[in-house]
Specification:
Helix 8 packs parallel to helix 9 and helix 9 packs across helix 10. By secondary structure, this protein is an alpha/beta fold. Strands 9-8-7-6-5-12-11-10 form an eight-stranded parallel β-sheet. Strands 1-2 form a two-stranded antiparallel ribbon. Helices cover 29% and strands 15% of the residues.
């Protein structure tokens, strides 16, 4: 959780509104799973026409509940009458569509293909399914296999160590995240003890391996040394490795050299190949960009533009999971408006999730490697750049973390959610209030442990 993101998130996002007169035939409320492309196909109106009519600056960013005006005078096509589905054939299963589902996500969950499901259900447009719709899953069983990423959704926490094992396991956490600040010359064996201790205590371990220097200088990242380091670490048997951290801001990547293609070609792709060569079971997670709207091309790239660049550079071929950070929320993760700081997608869980998942076309599941809610309760105020969290109570923190876990678990597009954080103690009234995110509060209590237990069934 970082730094120049906070002045970047607060940057105003100008939207150029069309000045011409448009004829709007009807309004449409965006549903979970919609994209502007799928809406344009449904109503036979181009993406660009809808974008201009609604003043949408980025066609990859729409959110559930948003009302769009559909121009050009064509009424929405009537729904094609579909006869009730016949009883599922022997060897098939049925599934009721949930909020946030896509046909691709359902197919992955059952180990089927979206085309097979579309054919079995007479679905003409695989981009459009309805919440509550009952689908026949050809070749499926009544018990679906685990969702996304080849395994079931799991919860974890970023922690200072293993001193809060009992509370973490109460909350249903199966993973622990440890961050390693790498420098050229580090030995992979330095991480042997922490990997072994995690496994001895019953945790899977995610190692987030990023740079050891803040505001690194030009040309300072030794890519070959980094790749050799993560290769050596993979041989030690960690469960997942995150390849760098927030590489779209100059706090973590040299100013003037920020480039998604450079990240993919020089770091992510060779690291992925090296890791898989020595230990194919290690889950490789792409580094999570800093969620920000600030973009001057030198000190920062907005994460939506950076993500698109990662996609275009082929990142999905070199990651088992797409890394995501969300730690600027001040509303329930079910909310799509009402954040004290404004409407930028990064303030909202659902909009952030949809951006990251849809940018890669659902080809990879999401791994939230940092998800947290800041509460100043028990601390002497908040840093000025975090004033947006001033009204967030510890009870809300606990509730919202549980809601986020429930949404991630049921959505079919997330593999892992790491709570930021369990027990970090750093609190700087002029900088980073990490301890305000901790679920272990200053009085030693952990309301979030109980709320998360109710969702995850921890012991």
């Amino acid at each position: 959780m970082k730094r120049s993101r906070w002045l970047s998130i607060l940057a105003a996002l100008a939207m150029a509104l069309a000045t011409g007169t448009a004829v709007f035939a009807f309004s449409y409320q965006v549903q979970r799973g919609d994209t502007l492309s799928s809406i344009s196909r449904r109503f036979s109106v181009s993406v660009e026409t809808i974008r201009q009519a609604n003043g949408i600056a980025n066609p990859n960013l729409i959110y559930a509940g948003q009302t769009l005006e559909i121009p050009d005078g064509d009424a929405p096509p009537p729904a094609t009458p579909t006869p009730p589905p016949a009883p599922p054939p022997s060897g098939s299963a049925t599934y009721t569509v949930q909020p946030g589902d896509t046909l691709s996500a359902v197919a992955r969950r059952f180990g089927a293909t979206y085309t097979a499901i579309a054919q079995a259900n007479g679905i003409a447009n695989p981009n459009f399914i309805r919440v509550g719709q009952v689908l026949i899953i050809p070749g499926g069983s009544d018990t679906p296999p685990p969702p996304s990423g080849g395994s079931s959704f799991e919860l974890g926490g970023q922690a200072a160590g293993f001193g809060r094992q009992a509370q973490m396991q109460q909350a249903g956490m199966k993973w622990i995240k440890i961050q390693h600040k790498w420098r050229a010359g580090d030995a992979p064996g330095d991480l042997t003890a922490v990997i072994n201790e995690a496994h001895d205590k019953g945790f899977k371990i995610l190692l987030s391996i990023s740079g050891g220097d803040t505001y690194p200088g030009p040309g300072s990242i030794d890519f070959n040394a980094y790749v050799n380091f993560v290769k050596g670490v993979a041989a030690l048997g960690p469960d997942a490795i995150e390849i760098w951290n927030e590489m779209n801001i100059d706090f973590e990547w040299p100013a003037g050299e920020i480039s998604p293609s450079a990240y993919v070609n020089n770091m992510l792709a060779p690291a992925y190949r090296a890791i898989k060569a020595v230990n194919g079971s290690v889950m490789v997670i792409s580094g999570a960009p800093a969620p920000t709207g600030f973009d001057n091309g030198t000190n920062a790239w907005a994460d939506d533009r950076y993500l698109a660049g990662m996609r275009d550079a082929g990142a999905a071929s070199y990651a088992d999971c797409i890394g995501v950070h969300h730690n600027a929320g001040a509303t329930s993760p079910y909310a799509a408006s009402g954040h004290p700081a404004g409407t930028h997608y990064s303030w909202y869980f659902g909009a952030t999730r949809d951006l990251y998942y849809n940018t890669f076309g659902g080809r990879r599941p999401l791994c939230f490697t940092e998800l947290g809610y800041l509460s100043g309760d028990g601390f002497p105020g908040l840093p000025p750049n975090f004033a947006w969290a001033g009204d967030t109570s510890v009870a809300e923190q606990a509730q919202w973390l549980a809601e986020a876990a429930a949404l991630a678990r049921s959505g079919g597009n997330a593999r892992l959610l790491i709570i930021f954080n369990v027990d970090l103690t750093h609190y700087d009234l002029n900088g980073d209030p990490q301890a305000g995110y901790a679920i272990i509060r200053p009085d030693g209590g952990c309301p979030a442990c109980e709320s998360l237990q109710s969702v995850m069934g921890g012991g």
